[in-house]
Design goal:
The structure holds two protein chains of two kinds. Chain A is an alpha/beta fold. Chain A has ten helices and twelve strands. Chain A has a single domain, classed as Rossmann fold. Helix content of chain A is 37%, strand content 29%. Chain A has a six-stranded mixed beta sheet, with helices on both faces. Chain A has a four-stranded antiparallel beta sheet with strand order 2-1-4-5, with helices on one face. Chain B is an alpha/beta fold. The chains are: A alpha/beta, B alpha/beta. Chains A and B meet through helix 2, strand 7, helix 3 and strand 8 of A and helix 1, helix 9 and helix 10 of B.
C-alpha cells in the first residue's frame, strides 16, 4: 500500500560492497516506506541475495561505500543480532540446519531478544508455547517441528514455513524474504504467501527477493526493481514483473531499453 | 570485523583462576630417587606397608618407558627437574578448620569453593587439596553419623590403614602404566571415601584440587569404596595458576563397587591450559579406573575436560560382577594449542554386563582432540552389550579431531555397537542465529551445549550449569 507521506523504513544510498575483494554491489539505491511491498528481481548472480545479506549484516561481505539507514539510523556498524532486535528480518533462501539446538528453545530465545527491544515482557516456556501454537496455524505447520533441532531433517517446504513462523514471532519492521518461493510446490507457496500477506501491516514493510513472477501473483508488490550487475536498472509497478515474465531479463538489461530510475 | 574485536575483548579475560597464592611453602629438593620416597613417606608419618608400596612402585617405574602411543606430542619431561612434594607451612598442627591459614581459605573462597562453616555449599561435602596436601574436609562429622568416611587419603592411611591396605593398588596395580607407577611412588594426597553396606551417601562428596606452585608435580590419589548396596555421587574440580612453564599432574583414581553398589564420579577439569601460543599449562596424565566387583554394581564416569595443555586420560570400568554396568559420558573441549587424547576402556568380564560410552569432542583453534576407547568382551561375558557414540565438532579450520575405537571380543554372543559423527560450526549457522537476535557468544554456546546435551544431562545439577558456562567461556574468541 503506497502512501506518499509514510515514513521511510529502509533507505539504501549508493551502496557498494564486495566479497573477497570481488565487487558485487555497485551503487544500489532503494527507498522503502511503511506499508509498502517491494520486489527485487534479477538473474542469478545479479547481487540481489548479497543485498539482502548485507542489510542483515552477514560478516562475509564488506561494504566499501554507501549507506544503509533503517528508521533513519545507519545500521552498517551494528552487529547482526542488534539489527534483528531492532526489527530487521531476513528470511533465508537456504535455512541452515543446527543440530542439537531445539527449535522451540531457539524460537523462544529469538522472540524474547526481540521483545526486550520492544519493551515487551519476556515469555516463559508456557506463555511462549501458547504464542507459538497460535502462530503455527498461520503457516499450517505441524507442532512436531518444534521438538526437532532447528531445521534438521526438515523438507524444503518445512524450512520455509519455519522461516515465516520466525517472522510471525519476531514482528519485524522490515522483512526481507530471499527466494522464499524457491523449491516450493504451489500449495506450499500459497500458504507462505498467505502468511506474508497477513503479516504485512501499515507500520512495516516487505522486500521480496525472487527471480520468478509466481510469488508475485500471490503477494502483490507495490514496486518491482530489476537488478543486474550489482545495480538496480529499472523500477516499476507490478506490471514490470509481468513484462519480465514475458520478455525475459534481456529487455531490461539491453542498453537500448535501459532507462535507469532512482 | 566488528564481531572479531568484540570477541577479542572477551578473550583477554580468559582464565580467571590463574592467580597465585602468596604463601610460605615447604618444598623438598627437586628430583626423584629412593631417598625422595623415604622422605615423603617420613613426612607423612606413614606405616611401613605404604612405604613398601611406594618403593615397589618406584622400582617398577625405573624400568618403565614413558608411553608415546597417544596422539599428543610434547617436549620430553625431565623427571629430575620436578619437585615431588610441596605443602603450605604449618605453624602448628591444625585440628580444626578454624586453624587453617586464612590465606588458604581465601584462595578457595576465590575459586568459589567456600570452606568456612557459614558459607559452605549446601549438601556438598568438600575435600580441598592444595599442592601436595589436603587442607580441609568439610561435613566430616555429619557424614560419620552415617558411617561414611570422607577424609584425605593421608588421614585414611593413619586412621584406617586396614581399609587402605586392602584396597589401594587393587584396581590400578603399581606397575599398571608409567604414570600410575610414578604416582604410586610419590603420591602426596587426595581423597578417601568409604560408604558402608546399605548406605546411600546423604550428600554429594567433592574434591577440589589446586596446584599453586609452578615447579611442583601434583600426584593425587583417590580411593573410593562402596560396599554392598550403597551409593555415592562424587564430584571433582581442579584449577591452577598461569605459569609459562609446564606443570605435571599425574593422578590415580581407584573405585571399587561391591554387590549392587553404585558410584557416580563426575569431573570438571579446568587446569590452566597454556596461552594462545601454547606456552605453559598443565600436563595432565591421569589413570582412573573403577572395578564393578559385585553383581549388579554400577560405575558411571562423567567428565567435562576443558583445561590442561596435554590431557591423557581414560577413565575405565572393569565389569567383573554379573549384570554390572559401566558408563562413560565425556565432553572434551580443546582450544588454542591444547592437545587431548582421552576416552575410556570398558572391560566386560562377567555375564550380562552392559556399558555405554558417549563421547563429545570439540576442537577449536589449533588444537587436537582424540577419542581413544577400548571395548573388550572376555570369554565369559555371555550376553554382554556395549553401545558407543563418539561425536566430534570442529570449530574453525585449523583444529583436528580423531577417533580411535578399539574393539576386542572373545565372546561371540556379545553385542557391540559403535556410532561416530563429525560436524563443524559454520559461519552460516552462527549468522543464522545472530540474524534472529541471538548474540554471537550465546549462539556459539547454544550450538555447543546442544552438541553436548547428552553428556550434560548426566552431570549433577550444579555441575551441569557450571559446565555450560565454562564451555562458553573457553570458546570465546574461537570462532570468527
Amino acid at each position: 500500500m503506497i502512501k506518499k507521506d509514510a515514513h521511510l523504513i529502509l533507505e539504501i544510498t549508493d551502496l557498494h560492497a564486495s566479497v573477497e575483494d570481488q565487487p558485487i554491489l555497485q551503487g544500489v539505491n532503494l527507498q522503502i516506506r511503511a506499508g509498502e511491498i517491494h520486489a527485487v528481481m534479477g538473474r542469478n548472480g545479479s547481487g540481489k541475495s548479497t543485498l539482502s545479506k548485507i542489510i542483515a549484516g552477514h560478516p562475509a561481505y564488506t561494504v566499501t561505500s554507501g549507506e544503509v539507514k533503517f528508521q533513519g539510523k545507519d545500521i552498517l556498524n551494528m552487529e547482526p543480532e542488534d539489527r534483528a532486535r531492532a526489527g530487521v528480518f531476513l528470511g533465508f533462501q537456504y535455512p541452515v540446519e543446527i543440530p542439537g539446538v531445539s527449535n522451540l528453545e531457539f524460537l523462544r530465545v529469538a522472540t524474547n531478544s526481540r521483545r526486550v527491544e520492544m519493551d515487551e515482557e519476556e515469555l516463559d516456556t508456557f506463555a511462549f508455547e501458547d504464542l507459538v501454537n497460535e502462530k503455527l496455524k498461520l503457516v499450517q505447520m505441524d507442532p512436531i517441528f518444534l521438538e526437532r533441532s532447528v531445521n534438521e531433517g526438515f523438507s524444503g517446504g518445512e524450512k520455509k514455513r519455519n522461516e515465516i513462523l520466525q517472522m510471525a514471532l519476531l514482528q519485524p519492521i522490515v522483512s526481507i524474504l530471499d527466494e522464499t518461493d524457491s523449491g516450493l510446490d504451489i500449495d506450499a507457496l500459497r500458504v507462505i504467501a498467505a502468511g506474508v500477506n497477513q503479516l504485512n501491516t501499515p507500520y512495516s514493510a516487505t522486500l521480496l527477493i525472487t527471480h520468478y513472477q509466481r510469488l508475485l501473483n500471490e503477494v502483490i508488490p507495490d514496486f518491482v526493481h530489476v537488478m543486474s550487475s550489482g545495480k538496480i536498472l529499472r523500477t516499476g509497478g507490478k506490471e514490470l514483473a509481468l513484462e519480465l515474465e514475458e520478455y525475459g531479463y534481456d529487455c531490461v538489461e539491453k542498453p537500448s531499453n535501459n532507462k535507469e530510475v532512482n | 570485523m566488528e564481531s572479531q574485536t568484540a570477541v577479542g575483548k572477551v578473550v583477554s579475560q580468559a582464565y580467571k583462576y590463574g592467580f597465585v597464592t602468596d604463601i610460605e611453602t615447604e618444598k623438598i629438593p627437586k628430583g626423584i630417587n629412593e631417598e625422595t620416597i623415604h622422605l615423603i613417606s617420613a613426612k607423612k608419618e606413614e606405616p611401613e606397608f605404604l612405604l613398601n608400596f611406594r618403593l615397589k612402585a618406584f622400582n617398577q617405574w625405573k624400568k618403565m618407558q614413558e608411553p608415546n602411543w597417544a596422539n599428543l606430542g610434547y617436549p620430553e619431561i625431565n623427571y629430575q627437574d620436578i619437585i615431588y612434594y610441596a605443602a603450605p607451612t604449618e605453624k602448628n598442627k591444625k585440628s580444626s578448620l578454624e586453624e587453617v591459614d586464612p590465606k588458604l581459605l581465601e584462595t578457595f573462597d576465590k575459586l568459589g569453593i567456600p570452606l568456612s562453616e557459614q558459607k559452605r555449599l549446601s549438601n556438598v561435602a568438600v575435600d580441598a587439596v592444595f599442592d601436595s596436601v589436603s587442607i580441609a574436609t568439610t561435613y566430616k562429622e555429619k557424614l560419620a553419623e552415617h558411617g561414611v568416611i570422607f577424609c584425605s587419603i593421608s588421614e585414611a592411611i593413619k586412621e584406617y590403614p586396614d581399609l587402605v591396605e586392602k584396597y589401594i593398588g587393587s584396581v590400578v596395580p603399581v606397575s599398571d602404566n608409567f604414570f600410575a607407577a610414578l604416582n604410586s611412588a610419590v603420591f602426596s594426597d587426595g581423597s578417601f571415601v568409604f560408604i558402608p553396606k546399605g548406605i546411600n551417601c546423604p550428600m554429594d562428596l567433592s574434591s577440589y584440587f589446586r596446584i599453586n606452585s609452578g615447579d611442583i608435580g601434583q600426584f593425587e590419589r583417590t580411593l573410593i569404596i562402596a560396599e554392598e548396596a550403597s551409593s555415592v555421587s562424587y564430584l571433582e574440580g581442579c584449577t591452577a595458576p598461569m605459569f609459562d612453564t609446564n606443570t605435571l599432574h599425574a593422578a590415580v583414581v581407584e573405585l571399587v563397587a561391591l554387590d549392587e553398589a553404585s558410584i557416580k564420579y563426575s569431573t570438571v577439569q579446568n587446569w590452566y591450559s597454556g596461552n594462545e601460543q601454547g606456552i605453559g599449562g598443565i600436563y595432565n596424565f591421569v589413570t582412573k579406573r573403577g572395578q564393578c566387583r559385585g553383581k549388579k554394581s554400577k560405575i558411571s564416569w562423567s567428565q567435562v575436560e576443558t583445561g590442561s595443555a596435554i590431557t591423557w586420560k581414560y577413565p575405565s570400568c572393569i565389569l567383573q560382577g554379573e549384570e554390572s554396568i559401566g558408563e562413560f559420558y565425556s565432553v572434551a573441549l580443546t582450544n588454542n594449542r591444547q592437545k587431548a587424547d582421552t576416552g575410556t576402556k570398558m572391560i566386560h568380564v562377567g555375564a550380562n554386563t552392559r556399558s555405554t560410552i558417549v563421547s563429545k569432542g570439540i576442537s577449536a583453534g589449533h588444537s587436537s582432540n582424540s577419542y581413544r576407547g577400548l571395548v573388550q568382551m572376555g570369554p565369559k561375558a555371555y550376553g554382554a552389550r556395549n553401545f558407543s557414540q563418539c561425536d566430534s565438532m570442529l570449530i574453525g579450520d585449523q583444529a583436528a579431531a580423531n577417533t580411535y575405537p578399539y574393539i576386542r571380543s572373545q565372546q561371540p554372543q556379545a553385542k557391540i555397537e559403535h556410532e561416530a559423527s563429525t560436524c563443524r560450526i559454520s559461519e552460516d549457522q552462527l549468522f543464522y542465529l545472530q540474524s534472529r537476535g541471538i548474540g554471537f557468544e550465546e549462539a556459539v554456546s547454544m550450538m555447543v551445549s546442544g552438541f553436548c546435551r547428552d553428556v550434560f544431562n548426566q552431570l549433577p545439577m550444579e555441575f551441569a550449569a557450571e559446565a555450560d558456562k565454562l564451555m562458553a567461556l573457553k570458546l570465546e574468541g574461537s570462532v570468527g
